[in-house]
Structures are given as C-alpha cells and as structure tokens.
Amino acid sequence: MPPPLLAPIILAFAPLFTVASWQHVLVLLFGAILTPGKRTVTSALRIMGRQGKKDFQNYHRLLNRAQWSPRRGSQILLHLLVKRFAPTGPLLFGIDDTIERRWGAKIRARGIYRDPVRSSDSHFVKASGLRWLSLMLLVPIPWAQRVWALPVLTSLAPSERYYQDRPRMPKSLLQWAAQQCFQLRRWWPNRKLTVVVDGAFAALDFLHQLHRVDISCVTRLRLDARLYQPAPVRPRNRPGRPRVIGSRRPAPRQHLNDPQTRWTKTLIPNWYGRAGRTVELYSATAIWYHGGLPPAPIRWVLLRDPEHHFDPLALLSTDLAATPMDIVHAYVSRWQVEVTFEESRAHLGLETQRQWSDNAIARTTPLLLALYSMITLMADRLNSSRRLPIAQAAWYAKPVPTFSDALAAVRKHLWSHGDLFISPRRSNVKKSSNALLQCFSDALCYAA
Predict the structure, then answer these.
(1) Which residue from 67, 74, 142, 409 could staple onto 153, CB 3.0 to 4.6 Å apart?
(2) Which of 348, 371, 360, 399 lies closest to 143 in space, CA to CA?
(3) How far apart are CA 115 and CA 341, in angstroms?
C-alpha cells in the first residue's frame, strides 16, 4: 500500500486498473521513482526486491497488453494538478515536441528528424528516434518560487513514412497539437485556456482551429508578416462577396527603424530563468492574413533589447484583450517545457527504457513524463507537512528547491514509510551507524 501521506494522489488512479493489475502498478510506480539510471521493468523489480519472483512477465504485460486508458489517466492527473496549483483563473499550457533517441529494427514508429537541441541556424543535425508531442501545464509552484511545466498529455507523432503501409492518413505536428487542444477543451469546458507554442506552430490554420474552440494562442510572429486593418463595414445591398480584410498595415520589421514608433521600456522580472531584463515594447492589433487561409485577429508585440544582447522578436496572441506583458510572460514561461524535457532525461531515465512493442512504446514515455508531474504533487504534499530539504554545497548554493530535491524528498519518504525491505531477524548482524545510513540514503536519493 502507498504511504498515507501520498495515498490521495496515488489512489486516484486506482479505478483505471483491475485489483490484480493495481498491485503491479504500485510496484512499477515505486520502482520507477526509487531506481537510479535506466528505467526498465527489470530495474524497477530489482530495486523493489522482486528479482527472484517468477511472475515478472505480468509487469511487462501491464505495458504491452493490459487494457487501461492512458487518456483517462491524463485527465485524472490534470484535475489533480489544477485542483492543487490553479483552482481558479485562466489556465496556461505549453505544447512542444521532443525527440527520444531510440534505435532498433522492431521500433516501427522510429524516424529521422531534425535535432532541435544540437541544431542551429547554420548547422543542421539529424536524429533517429521517436517524436513525442507533449502538452504541459505551466503553473507557478509556491515552494519553488517559479513556473514549472508539468506534463499531462503526451502523444506519439510519427513521420509520414510510418503511414506508408497503413490505412490511416498521416497527421502533421499541427494536427496532433490541435487534437490535444480539442481534448483539453472537452476536459475543461468552462475555464479560460491559453496555449503557448514556438514559431513552428505559428500557422493560420492552427490558430483558426483553436479559435473555434475558444482557446487563445501565444506564439512567435514573423517580422515580415502580412498585417491588415479589419474589414470595413459592408454597405447594405452591395453586390459581391464581402471583404475579409482592410488596407495593408506595416509589417513589424518596419516599426524597428520608424522614428514615430513609441516604445515602452519595461522590466521583465524573469527572463528565461535569469535575472530581470529591461526591454522595449511596442504593441498593436491587426489582422494576420494570407490568401486562401482564414484571417486571424491578433494582438502583436514587438520586443527589442536596448543593449542589443538579442535580436528583435515579435510575438502574437489571439486574445485581443491580453496586455503586452501578459503575452511576454506567457511566451517566456514556455522555456520551462524545455527544462522539463531535460530534467526528465537527467533524473527520470527518459530514453533509457527498452520496450519495442508498439503498445508498450506508446505508453512508457508518456508515463515517465507524467511521473514528473506526480513527483511534483507528492513533493508538494511533503512540503505541506515539513519544508523540503535542499541539497546545498559550498560551490552550489540553491535558495529554493529544484526537481532533484523534490525527487530526493519523495524517495526518502518512500524508503522510510514504504516497508519495501525487512531486515532479517539475526542477533549477530552488526547494524550500521545512523551517520553512515544517512550518507547511503543521500547518495541513493540524489542519484540520477
């Protein structure tokens, strides 16, 4: 059974499984949290002391055969996160893709993609693996004093080559992202939702689909974007098709050197995890339009650095009532999505699993990313009872806990309350000192 303090979080997922499968779920869950290094099924069984059990195949079947709904699990996880960290007000989400570097002849969804981490504007790097699209809740964590990106829904987005011998039509990354947003609106029909994405998702079709379900979008805007005035009022009884746009407006690039542009100097308190940065803003509303595509009413913001540390940047929001600072803060918060991907690789063993069946692959990586959110919820409950300890060093001083501290706190709690191991009753066994046990515990809990 789970520890009493963490039971409300863990038991919320019990209705997804049968009674027999639920016991296997607990073993894999605690094993994935406690084991360092590779997150394979065998590693989880070893750390839980079940390497001698003959029913190990049942744990593999939980991933590749058992009938349970990952989508329903995502809904439960999102409700837990929203109830704790954002019970009222609008909800901000980030969507981005990542490449899980995997090789193997039996991994049929594997493709060749551009590596966004190693590539640059002048250097193109290809990577072989699986492409995942993850929807994450961007919400401030009180005890961390910053915004975290908490994964809630992750989908496998294969390339077109994967569908060549299959009856299904291929889906683009924009179509997968739109489907995730549609699912999000079905889960939360009465909340104001905003999705922040990078420039790869800045497409008029995508913005139009989100507008149909009343979801706002914040993304980058090209500096040479074609902007127009709203369509003029159509006279009554005038023949012909109504106009969709008005006269042409200057592109954002033209405002950079225009002496009539009225810039507003503003301090951004948290600029990509660093100290505050002073920038100059200019904002306006317009219609973004290309021939044959639906027009998009937007509020766009032009940023430039007075010290010229970064190139000018244009952002847009489909919420015309949003302020320029709201748009900038939302887009800067998107960086936490990349942080979550990196910390999942460093601390949760992403890219170390070894499943090769289609069903197991489609479940394992989303589960590891969802584990990031579950550990955050568990650490929050531990912090409510006593403050989370912070791993300090003379060469590395941290003012607030990070995800590694949250993971270590959850591990220590499981070691002390999980009844995972029972020492044999022998009087001639020499017990280790408390200091030595504490050293071993720290080394294991903070291991990646």
Answers:
(1) 74
(2) 399
(3) 14
User: 215-220 and 193-196: which strand pairing?
Assistant: parallel
Averaged pLDDT, 25-29: 94
Most confident of 16-30, 239-253, 379-393, 420-434: 16-30
The amino acid that residue 264 corresponds to is T
Which pLDDT value is given to residue 118? 74
State how far the Cα of 187 lies from the Cα of 288, in Å rounded to an integer: 30
| C-alpha–C-alpha distance, residues 331 and 329, integer Å | 6
Q: Is residue 50 predicted with pLDDT exceeding 50? A: yes
* Contact between 315 and 328 (Cβ < 8 Å): yes
Higher local confidence (pLDDT), 48 or 281: 281
Query: Quick one: DSSP state of residue 177?
Result: H
pTM: 0.91
Give the integer Cα–Cα distance in Å for 317 and 195: 10
Mean pLDDT of 387-392: 84
Neighbours of 195 (CB within 10 A): 27
List, for residues 406-446, the tens digit of each pLDDT value: 999 999 998 887 555 434 444 455 555 566 566 566 656 77
Give the containing element (helix H, strand E) for 33: helix 19-34
How big is the chain, counted in residues?
448
Distance CA 117, CA 127 (A): 10
CA–CA separation, 53 and 57 (whole Å): 10
Which residue matches tokens 């499984």? 17
- Residue 201: count of CB within 10 angstroms of its CB: 21
Q: Is 362 helix (H, G, I), strand (E, B) or coil?
A: helix
Q: Count the Cβ atoms, other than its own, within 10 Å of residue 67.
A: 8
Tokens of 173: 């990354």
Q: For residue 432, what are the contacts with CB-CB under 8 A and spacing of at least 6?
A: 440
One-letter identity of residue 422: I
pLDDT tens-place string over residues 235-244:
877 788 888 8
| Among 333, 335, 329, 277, residue whose Cα is nearest residue 301 | 329
Q: How far apart are CA 30 and CA 380, in angstroms?
A: 17
Q: DSSP string of 287-349?
A: EE--TTS--EEEEEEEEE-TT-SS--EEEEES-TT--HHHHHHHHHHTHHHHHHHHHHHHHS-
List of residues 6+ apart from 401 with CB closer than 8 A: 143, 144, 379, 383, 388, 389, 390, 409
Query: Is 105 within 8 Å of 89 (Cβ atoms)?
Result: no
For 76, the 3-state DSSP assignment is: helix
